[in-house]
Amino acid sequence: MRLIRDEAPDSGNARVGTRFWIYPQPPFIPGYEQPDRVWLSIARDEIGEGPSDLSMYVADPLYDKQPYGFANLPPFGGAKRAPVRPGPDRHFDNIDPTSRPFLAVHAYACVRFVLDIWQSYLGQRVHWFFDQTFPRLEIVPFVDWDNAQAGYGFLELGRSDVDGILRPYALNFDTIAHEVGHLVMLSETGVPTVTSPDGDFFSFSEAFSDCVSLISFLHFDSAIDRLLRRTRGNLLLYNELNRFAETSPETQIRLATNFRRMSAVTREVHDRALPFVGAIFDSIVALYHRDLVANGCADRRLLDVDLRELAQDEFDTFRQATAEAFSTKPLYFKLALTAARDAVGAALATALKTLDPNTLRLEEAANAVTAAAQGTAAELLEENFAWREIIASR
Ligand SMILES: [Zn+2]
């Protein structure tokens, strides 16, 4: 007779991942007061105190530090707070989300969460563009400074100051995801060595990072559920998706659902990024609608009208039909949204490798994203990039 020994719960499973808490939106946003428990793909035995691992580590200054700049780069050499340790089970979800050490754990978890997603889309590990000098990314979870920035070897987070209310960016997933977007892009395209006056590298970089923030947010099950329940499946309504940059350090007004076209923007990089972000958002929504219609969850005519110019009564008709379908088969809505998200996300990531950072134009980036997309996604992206005047209409 053979003895089969039951494994003790959780023993030997150190490789299935590590648990953390993440706030999908900062906890002061109504509806997001509680964090989500997430599993990061990194194994428990690959994370040390800090947290830290082979590609990144947290350095949390004990006193205030100056933000990094050209003459001032990591590693941080000053006095540091004690590195945060995992619980006895080696997960990091034992840290009180209202405590100071949680800032370090949350910042790390957000960077890892976003990296997991974009490495999946890329189909490979991201090798930091600075890894010849610094083997690991240094994450500074708190600097007394009204900004957040990612650069050569670091990602550091200050705090916002709105009417005297200070809020650490370490608790702001959108901000962190945006900064990780910059790092991922630079690591894939390489750093530009010359900047041409009519180049769009920096505008595209802002657009790409906002898309990383938006698409990564859509990877929280709780966020998708909340979004769909609140809008009853109708993404044309005002919702979390167009609020994602609300507390972004770079500007308050970068919205994914904007109606800006290239003829209406300035050369300022964030402004010039808006049509691209809008085209990406519209393509996700359009793909989502196709899927809903194909599954009998939305009015067919939704595909034939210009949604940007919808009259109120038409909008109400669509909303009614969608809401009815959503109440009986919500699962289809969730599947449609995640499929749309991933089709567009994967195309964006795949496009990076083909871009030359020195000569990059938005038109070229749009064509590369379209070329990297499959079937209907490619058609819809092309249509939306054309509407935004990023590429010529055919
Ligand atoms: Zn940025």
Notes on the structure:
It is built from nine helices and eight strands. It has 394 residues and is an alpha/beta fold. The strands form three sheets. Strands 3-4-6-5 form a four-stranded mixed β-sheet, covered by helices on one side. A two-stranded antiparallel sheet has the order 1-2. Strand 7 (159-162) and strand 8 form a beta hairpin. The chain is globular and about 60 Å long. Mean pLDDT is 89; it is low at 238-254. Zinc ion binds at residues 178, 182, 206, 209, 250.
Query: Strand-and-helix sequence, N→C?
Result: EEEHEEEEEHHHHHHHH
Please summarize the sheet with the most strands.
Answer: 4 strands, mixed
Bound ions, cofactors and other small molecules, one mention each: zinc ion
Assign the structural class, choosing from mainly alpha, mainly beta, alpha/beta, alpha+beta, or little secondary structure: alpha/beta
Principal-axes shape call = globular
Tell me the strand percentage band.
Answer: 5-15%
The structural domain count equals 2
Mean pLDDT score: 89
From the alpha carbons, calculate the radius of gyration and give it in angstroms: 22 Å
Number of helices: 9
Low-confidence stretches: 238-254
Count all strands and give the number: 8
> Could you give the distance between the termini?
74 Å
Helix content: 25-40%
| Biggest sheet: strand arrangement | 3-4-6-5
Keywords:
Elastase, domain 1, four-stranded mixed β-sheet, two-stranded antiparallel ribbon, 9 helices, 8 strands, binds zinc ion
Topology:
Blueprint lengths: L17 E5 L13 E5 L15 E3 L42 H22 L14 E4 L7 E4 L2 E4 L1 E4 L2 E4 L4 H17 L11 H17 L3 H11 L37 H26 L17 H17 L1 H23 L9 H11 L2 H13 L7
Parallel strand pairs: 3-4, 4-6
Antiparallel strand pairs: 1-2, 5-6, 7-8
The structure holds zinc ion.
The site of zinc ion has 5 residues, from helix 2 and helix 3.
